[in-house]
Each structure stands twice: as C-alpha cells, then as structure tokens.
Amino acid sequence: NRKHIPIKIGVGLNTGDCCVGNMGADQRFNYSVLGDDVNLASRLEGQSKPYGVGVVIGPRTKEQATGYAVLELDLIKVKGKTRPVNIYALLGRKAVLDSPEFKSQEEKHNRMLSAYRGQNWNEAAGLLAECRGMAFDLKTLYDIYEERIKTFQAAPPPRDWDGTFTATSK
User: For 80, 104, 136, 139, which has the most beta carbons within 10 A of its beta carbon?
Assistant: First the structure.
C-alpha cells in the first residue's frame, strides 16, 4: 500500500571494444571496464538529462539499431574528446519506427537539424515550431535548439561552423 514513486534515470549506450576484468595490482584491484568506447558511453549517459531523453546512443550503436526508432540529438564534442560525435535518442522499437507519427517527426526533425547546421536560422525556427506539436514530446531538446537559434541569430557562428556543440559537463 505504498505510493508508487517513479524513478527517472538516463542511460548511455555505445558500441565498441573495451577491456573488462580485475584491474590493478596484487594488493588492490577492482573489477572494472576500460576503454575509449566505455568512456564515451559514460559521457552519453551524462547527456540524457540536459537533452531530456531516457536513452542516448552513440553512432556505432545507432548503426546496429536498425529496428529501432532513433532521432539525432546533436553533433557534440563531449568532455575529454577532441572530435565531435553524432548522438541519438532511442525512442522505441520497430512498431514505433514504422509508425506514421514517427516517420513524420523524423523527416521534419532532420530538416530542422539541416537548416540549423546550414545557419538558416529562420527556417530552422519554423521547423522547430512544427516539431514541437508532433507525437514525440522532446520539449527539452527543442528548448535547447530554440535558445541556440536565438543566440546565433544575434551573434552568428563563423561561416565554417559545422554545427558542433561542445559539452561542458560530463
């Protein structure tokens, strides 16, 4: 008869090589996992809250998740990395992927990202407004892009900007 209190957590998934096992010296060791792809997975988990999604996946995981509904979140340079990576939100299984609602939002969302990266701020803002009223509630994500667009309209990035956002938190 206890009140149900939901727990919301973020998950970061990445695919790649790693080293798993007991690490350390004879006197002090710990079962752990090490590797560049593990570090990226940890950074992806840390982005779930700022982007307002439950599961953030890396590019290699996205390549292998062909039967899942996935939307690109951003091109981001995570803490500890020098090269940006595309990150994605995992939104559902095949039934979601095949739904007309997802297909419609995916198309509009991708057009918005393209306009944003092409520095077509008015077009990006218009598409963003349309995305907000669609089936998948990505309010936090779209709030981020709305703020960025307003900032860039006032002070545009350099012409050669590739759309990369640099994350300042893990």
Answer: 136
Quick one: pLDDT at residue 8? 85
Per-residue pLDDT at 169 = 64
* Cβ partners under 8 Å of residue 40, min gap 6: 12, 14, 16, 58, 78, 81, 85
* Residue with more model confidence, 33 or 155: 155
Task: Say whether pLDDT at 69 is over 90.
Answer: yes
Give Dmax (Cα) for the chain: 61
Q: How far is CA 75 from CA 6, 79, 95, 100, in A?
A: 31, 13, 27, 26
DSSP secondary structure letters along 52-80: T-SEEE-HHHHHH-TTSEEEEEEEEE-TT
Q: Would you say 101 and 91 are in contact if contact means Cβ atoms under 8 Å apart?
A: no
Q: Which residue has the higher pLDDT, 167 or 92?
A: 92
